[in-house]
Design goal:
Blueprint (H helix, E strand, L loop, with lengths): L10 E4 L8 H16 L5 H5 L6 H9 L6 H19 L11 H10 L3 E5 L5 H8 L7 E3 L12 H10 L6 E5 L2 H10 L2 E5 L11 E3 L7 H7 L3 E4 L7 H7 L2 E2 L3 E3 L14 E10 L3 E6 L6 E5 L2 E2 L7 E9 L4 E8 L7 E10 L6 E12 L2 E8 L12 E8 L3 E8 L5 E11 L4 E7 L2 E10 L4 E12 L6 H14 L3 H17 L2 E3 L2 H17 L25 H14 L1 H13 L1 H10 L22 E4 L2 E7 L2 H4 L3 H16 L2 H22 L1 E3 L2 E3 L17 H24 L1 H11 L3 H13 L35 H12 L8 H7 L6 H12 L11 H11 L3 H16 L12 H15 L3 E3 L2 E3 L10 E8 L2 E8 L17
Parallel strand pairs: 1-2, 1-4, 2-3, 4-5, 5-6
Antiparallel strand pairs: 7-14, 8-9, 9-10, 10-11, 12-13, 12-18, 14-15, 15-16, 16-17, 17-24, 18-23, 19-20, 20-21, 21-24, 22-23, 25-32, 26-27, 28-29, 30-31, 32-33
Helix pairs in contact: 1-4, 13-27, 13-28, 14-15, 14-18, 14-28, 15-18, 15-19, 18-19, 18-20, 19-20, 20-21, 20-22, 24-26, 26-27, 26-28, 27-28
The structure holds 6-O-phosphono-beta-D-glucopyranose and magnesium ion.
6-O-phosphono-beta-D-glucopyranose binds next to α1, α3 and α4.
Length: about 950
């Protein structure tokens, strides 16, 4: 099996002193000798602060406030340098630190470039002495740069010399100043030394070089999603991919200063408003990131000339989005370094922070910065909000908006402060975007930092959203860096439970972490009235509506790692159950039917008509809202799975069983008696290329399961609480006759399967449809439905996504190997893998892993992993693919690890793709935290207490 060859780093930049050789010790000895001569106390501890910093800065630190004339300074520095040079005179390869040569060799043979970036002016001599110049592609030293660490210049220069963008470089450093410089350059920061020295600033800390391998470095890069160069054509894709959030809101990664053609959006859960065609949609909320910079009259934007060293990175570990670039405004001698970082806090979901720093590297600049809460926003052209009230003064601003039809209110408040330089701040009460205006004059070497804190509340949170936002913004601002610290520890806590570690395959590792991050930020930790939309909170696609994506694809991740959130998501189905009742009623059936697309009320909100992508003057009838019925059983399946894993009896008793029974009533009414059997006609199965089909196997199988489970659960409820069970029977009109009918339907519902070869027929007549000649379409760039047309696809045996195969996965232990094999063989060849549904690849990966087809499993897995990170379907711009992300987690955990839960115990049957050396993850089983740690070597299956061996 060929492993993924995708890598996220092209160069490793090494600091020299203290990293490759212990000349850091010589620097100390030299300063110590000087200090002793001058009678200045100087200890090893004092020396810690001198690590990595320039000669002059070192002297100033050593002087601890004592003053010298410039001539004395020069004489002292020369003297120290003399001592130092005496010591390095005899430097040889024997002075290389252990591990240096093996690591350099490893990097070279992997084809990555190597640079040395040292603040020392003696670096070339030391390198010559060490005899390792042949290993390096570039050497940048203290003679070539003006600004010492923690400025990023040394490393950025090294990246220039290597011709590699900063975002694709890692730095290995022993000094805090160097780690800060690497961070400032937007590079991956690898620290050598004790953890305490780096205060959490590094991406990875190891004690010394001998414990560092290239694989540790590249694995550390899997916590960052990096945009290493600015490509205007791909901005909307990155806006989705780098979406940040905290489960209360999601914000697309548009730039603070905006960019033509971008699609700014902040989606707040539950903020629905009416919309034509799609009934209702999540409303785009005011842009809290808004901040514009003008320098000597020139407005900064990514369109401006003179931008270099661009890098943007989303740190999945902390949820912080960072951007760095250098800007030289045209026709000026000004050079500025701009840094932007922002975060919605996971610890306080109502709080966000934006931090912008401007460093004047050269020239002098008149800065004019405006920062606001910008309510001039829309939902792809549709205006939902009007401003009720706005205020701004020199520190605080707020805006209160209301949705036009649903009359929900949202308030945002912001607080702006500046530091590092004198500024004049004034109010900027622009209509619809209140905020502040900041003026400052920066000379060379000066910097300005702007901190913006924003809080947000809606009328769903409190009756007084404005008061809540205003009072909390002051508090959050007064607490200073608490917002960062609390956010970091909230994420730490989350990752302790939710991280999936894949060693040996960085692409898979990054993809699963990105998926887990995006899933987490889509889910409210407290709100039972909201769910997760198909595109999460990351874009306008599907308008914030929830599909079966949530219950079948996304929910398992939460059930296993964040059961409390999973419960909320199922409670959403309960709180919208009235809508489900209406959906059944409207089609003349009893019971309750979940909406194919669900929003605030649970009523069906699938748009019945949409514009034809081929001809916008034509409308196409969209049928899932009428006949894609399986979602009703999918939700029952999700409830059951939640209960199996959590044993939350209280939920099952009060909400789960009532929902499963009332939806069973719908199925009993919907199933059509036909002589000696029952049919369910005129439906759409998971494979939406075929509509108006009869007896879809997936649907019927789930209906049968649903009815039998309903009976089982009704008995369970009776035992738990007979009064409640009787009351429910009464409410739903259930009696022995009704139960007997459920059994009868379950017994005699059509399941189309060839008894000889165990092949299911996806629906009646599927096998009679025309075959596609696949070689004709090998190099296509669009879906088979677009190529063949809606009718054309319908007439062919071509699947948009797994239908029978997902059924095999969901009920995996009920099928024998022959059933798996026949159905896999048949359907896998007839599926539109590349441009059909994004829901497919992860499920195919899981299925193939079940069957031990590891090459195929890995191929499908990578296709799922690349859905958003490489935008291989070309539609990430509309938002990330939540179901694919949830499916990716299932492919890893259920597929490759083979995790199964049964009767309160679990087992694994690992079958890891060849490149994976190790797979580790955690989950909760009945409230107990479990750890699964699997290695590529054939090891016996792990099993929780008191089960005997693995189930397979
Ligand atoms: C860095 C060292 O590499 O170079 C510092 O870590 C030192 O301790 C700096 O001050 C400057 O070195 P030099 O040799 O130019 O004085
Ligand atoms: Mg050093």
């Amino acid at each position: 099996m060929q492993g993924s060859t995708k890598r996220f780093l092209d160069a490793i930049i090494f600091d020299l002193d203290g990293v490759l050789t212990d000349t850091a010790e010589y620097h100390f000895q030299a300063w110590k000798r000087l200090a002793d001569e001058e009678g200045i106390p100087f200890t090893r501890e004092d020396n810690e602060h001198l690590r990595g910093v320039s000669r002059r800065e070192s002297l100033l630190l050593l002087l601890k406030g004592r003053t010298l004339t410039e001539d004395q300074m020069v004489e002292w520095m020369d003297r120290k340098n003399g001592y130092y040079r005496e010591m390095i005179h005899n430097v040889s390869s024997a002075d290389l630190l252990p591990g240096a040569i093996p690591l350099l060799n490893e990097i070279r043979s992997a084809g990555l470039k190597i640079a040395i970036a040292s603040a020392s002016r003696n670096a070339q001599d030391v390198m010559n002495g060490l005899g390792i110049m042949d290993y390096v592609d570039a050497l940048i030293d203290g003679n070539q740069i003006a600004r010492a660490k923690p400025a990023p210049d040394l490393f950025v220069e090294a990246a220039h010399a290597l011709d590699i963008p900063p975002g694709r470089c890692a730095v290995v450093e022993d000094a805090l100043a160097g780690i800060e410089a690497a961070n400032a350059a937007g590079m991956l920061a690898i620290a050598l030394g004790p953890e305490e020295r780096f205060g959490g600033a590094a991406n990875l800390v190891v004690p010394d070089l001998s414990s560092l391998h290239l694989s540790n470095i590249t694995h550390a890069a899997t916590w960052r999603v990096v945009e290493d160069h600015f490509d205007p054509e791909r901005q909307r894709t990155y806006e989705s991919m780098l979406t940040q959030g905290n489960g209360y809101l999601g914000t697309r990664a548009t730039f603070e200063e905006r960019n033509p053609g971008d699609q700014q959006a902040t989606m707040v859960h539950g903020l629905w408003d009416d919309a034509p065609i799609v009934f209702t949609e999540l409303v785009n909320s005011p842009d809290w990131t808004d901040l514009a910079i003008t320098v000597n009259g020139q407005r900064f934007s990514m369109q401006a000339a003179g931008i270099s060293d661009y890098v943007r990175a989303l740190d999945l570990r902390t949820g912080v989005l960072f951007r760095r670039l250098r800007w030289q405004p045209k026709e000026s001698d000004i050079v500025l370094d701009l840094y932007f970082s922002r975060l919605p806090s996971l610890a306080d979901p109502h709080a966000m922070a934006v931090n912008v720093r401007v460093d004047c590297v050269r020239g002098s600049a008149d800065l004019n910065i405006t920062t606001s809460l910008n309510a001039h926003i829309d939902n792809t052209g549709l205006l939902h909000l009007h401003v009720i009230e706005q205020v701004s003064d020199a520190e605080i601003a707020f805006v209160l908006v209301e949705t036009r039809t649903s009359q929900k209110r949202l308030a945002m408040a912001m607080h702006t402060t500046t530091s590092d330089h004198e500024t004049v701040i004034s109010e900027n009460d622009c209509p619809g975007c209140p905020g502040q205006r900041i003026r400052a004059h920066l000379n060379q070497g000066e910097a300005l930092t702007v901190d913006k804190i924003v809080t947000v509340y809606t009328s769903r949170d409190t009756d007084q959203p404005l008061q809540a936002a205003r009072s909390s913004v002051r508090q959050v601002a007064a607490e200073g860096s608490t917002i960062l610290l609390a956010n970091t520890s909230a994420w730490e806590e989350f990752w302790r439970d939710a991280d999936v570690i894949i060693e040996g395959d960085d692409e898979s590792q990054l993809a699963i972490r990105h998926a887990v991050y995006q899933l987490r930020i889509a889910a409210s930790s407290t709100d039972e009235y909201v769910s997760i939309a198909a595109k999460t909170l990351s874009g306008f696609g599907y308008r914030g509506h929830a599909f079966w994506d949530t219950d079948i694809f996304i929910l398992p991740f939460f059930i296993f790692t964040q059961p409390r959130i999973a419960r909320n998501m199922l409670m959403y189905r309960w709180h919208t159950f009235e809508g489900a009742r209406r959906n059944a009623q409207q089609q003349g059936f009893r019971g309750a039917r979940f909406a194919w697309e669900s929003a605030e009320t649970g009523d069906e909100v699938t748009p019945p008509w949409v514009a034809d992508p081929k001809d916008p003057h034509k409308l196409i009838r969209i049928w899932p809202g009428d006949i894609e019925l399986h979602i009703t059983a999918d939700v029952a399946y999700a409830i059951w799975q939640y209960w199996q894993v959590t044993s939350d009896d209280e939920f099952m008793r009060d909400y789960g069983v009532p929902m499963i029974l009332e939806t069973a009533v719908y199925w009993a009414d919907r199933a059509e008696p036909e002589g000696d059997h029952y049919s369910i006609r005129d439906v759409i199965g998971p494979d939406e290329y075929h509509d108006h089909v009869d007896n879809n196997v997936y649907t019927n199988w789930l209906v049968r399961w649903h009815l039998l489970k309903a009976l089982e659960l009704r008995d369970w409820l009776y035992q738990q609480d007979s009064e409640k069970a009787k009351a429910l029977d009464k409410q739903l009109g259930l009696d022995e006759e009704a139960f007997a009918q459920w059994v009868d339907i379950a017994d005699r519902l059509v399941i189309l399967q060839d008894p000889q070869i165990a092949l299911f027929e996806q629906f009646e007549g599927f096998f009679k449809r025309k075959e596609v000649n696949w070689p004709d379409y090998e190099n296509r760039t669009k879906s088979m439905q677009l190529i063949l047309g809606i009718e054309g696809a319908n007439e062919h045996q071509v699947l948009k996504q797994p239908d029978v195969i997902i059924l095999l996965c969901l009920f995996r232990d009920q099928f024998d190997p022959q059933t798996w094999q026949s159905n896999w063989d048949y359907y896998i060849l007839r599926t539109d893998h590349s441009y059909g549904s994004s829901l497919g690849p992860a499920i195919h990966a899981w299925a193939a892993a079940e069957m031990g087809l590891l090459d195929a499993a890995y191929e499908h897995f990578l296709r799922a992993a690349r859905t958003d990170l490489m935008d291989i379907r070309g539609n990430t711009a509309e938002g990330v693919h939540g179901a694919s992300m949830g499916g990716l987690w299932q492919a890893v955990v259920f597929g490759f690890a083979g995790l199964r839960v049964k009767d309160g115990t679990y087992s694994t049957s690992p079958r890891l793709p060849a490149p994976w050396k190790r797979l580790t993850f955690h989950f909760y089983l009945r409230g107990e935290r479990q750890t699964v740690d699997l290695h590529q070597e054939p090891v016996p299956s792990t099993t929780s207490n008191n089960t005997a061996g693995s189930t397979r």
